[in-house]
């Protein structure tokens, strides 16, 4: 874990492509042993998928960096695009996303949350240092469409969270030019996804049908519902704030068509979050009372944080 944190810091503090590449390589070589900490067939398969995809993208990135160093070649649009492609593979942006749901399905919830949050920082930083091209816009639209539609026919919650992550990546790519904005987005998204993964890990939930079997009390049910709605970006929950920032940023740049696509497909993601929750809410529950044990205080804290958007708005107006 220390090396994972350090490798990301190396990439963030670098001022040249080679140092950034070194940071990414150290990060990959430290994340693989973390995946393999559980000795079973699934984890070794996940480690192999991660190693192969990251190696291909690293080779592509390194080849393009060396090409730009040749003084007889002019930095062209093609080289810029291929570097973007290599970073897209690392992030799991559509159409290079197929490895991510497959890999997440074979890992534990804690490792999944790390892959969806911390592992995005270094490649996103590299993208924000590059000029945006038409390929970036194509990647944004594809990520939003794939992330929305891909999660519809899934029963595995880990795969659903992977497609949700791809969708959120599309939103982050839309503001990748502004480092402050995508870092705010990633911070809020990380807090939401980490708490969701922790709850799924705590209850050992991996599939939708397990939610109705799990005998949760009303506090936990409402807490999970609020978190899911927050992840879908529904006002007045805190998850709406980063999406609001993206919409505001794109309106200033007159990117109306992309905003329209993003909002329309955001409704589809909200639909499959609701599908997760309806199963749980409509199931027969033995414990009908609101309960406040030591674990429920964590849920109440999460509910309070997710409902803090109106307070932020009031402070902003004042």
Care to describe what's here?
The chain is built from 16 helices and no strands. The protein is mainly alpha-helical and 318 residues long. The protein is globular. The mean pLDDT is 84.
Give the key terms:
318 residues; mainly alpha; 16 helices; globular; NAD; transport
Nutshell version of this structure?
By secondary structure, the protein is mainly alpha-helical.
Mean pLDDT, all residues:
84
Structural class: mainly alpha
User: Can you tell me the number of structural domains?
Assistant: 1
Number of helical stretches of at least 4 residues: 16
The low-confidence runs, each spanning 5 or more residues with pLDDT under 50, are: none
Q: What separation lies between the terminal Cα atoms? A: 42 Å
Our estimate of the beta-strand percent is: under 5%
Number of beta strands: 0
3D shape: globular
Encode the helix/strand succession as letters: HHHHHHHHHHHHHHHH
Computed Rg: 20 Å
Topology:
Layout: H1 2-12, H2 17-35, H3 41-69, H4 77-91, H5 99-104, H6 109-116, H7 121-128, H8 134-149, H9 157-174, H10 179-202, H11 209-213, H12 218-232, H13 240-252, H14 256-282, H15 294-306, H16 309-317
Helix pairs in contact: 1-2, 1-7, 2-3, 3-4, 4-7, 6-10, 7-10, 8-9, 8-14, 9-10, 9-14, 10-12, 10-13, 12-14, 12-15
């Amino acid at each position: 874990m220390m090396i994972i944190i350090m490798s990301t810091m190396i990439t963030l503090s670098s001022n040249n492509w080679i140092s950034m590449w070194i940071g990414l390589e150290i990060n990959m070589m430290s994340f693989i042993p973390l995946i393999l900490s559980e000795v079973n067939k699934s984890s070794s398969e996940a480690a192999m998928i991660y190693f192969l995809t990251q190696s291909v993208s690293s080779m592509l990135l390194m080849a393009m960096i060396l090409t730009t160093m040749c003084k007889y070649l002019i930095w062209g649009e093609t080289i810029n695009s291929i570097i973007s492609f290599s970073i897209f593979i690392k992030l799991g942006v559509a159409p290079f996303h197929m490895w991510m749901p497959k890999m997440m399905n074979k890992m534990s919830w804690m490792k999944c949350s790390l892959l969806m949050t911390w592992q995005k920082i270094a490649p996103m930083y590299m993208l924000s240092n590059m000029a945006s091209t038409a390929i970036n816009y194509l990647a944004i639209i594809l990520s939003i469409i794939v992330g929305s539609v891909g999660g519809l026919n899934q029963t595995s919650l880990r795969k659903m969270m992977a497609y949700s992550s791809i969708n959120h990546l599309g939103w982050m790519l839309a503001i990748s030019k502004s480092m402050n904005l995508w870092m705010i987005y990633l911070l809020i998204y990380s807090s939401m996804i980490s708490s969701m993964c922790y709850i799924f890990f705590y209850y050992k939930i991996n599939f939708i049908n397990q939610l109705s079997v799990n005998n949760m009390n009303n506090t936990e049910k409402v807490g999970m519902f609020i978190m899911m709605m927050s992840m879908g970006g529904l006002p007045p929950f805190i998850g709406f704030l980063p999406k609001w920032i993206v919409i505001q940023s794109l309106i200033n740049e007159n990117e109306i068509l992309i905003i329209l696509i993003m909002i329309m497909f955001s409704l589809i993601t909200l639909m499959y979050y609701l599908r997760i929750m309806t199963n749980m809410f409509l199931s027969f529950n033995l414990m009908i009372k609101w309960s406040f044990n030591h674990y429920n205080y964590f849920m109440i804290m999460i509910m309070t944080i997710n409902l803090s958007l109106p307070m932020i708005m009031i402070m902003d107006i004042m």
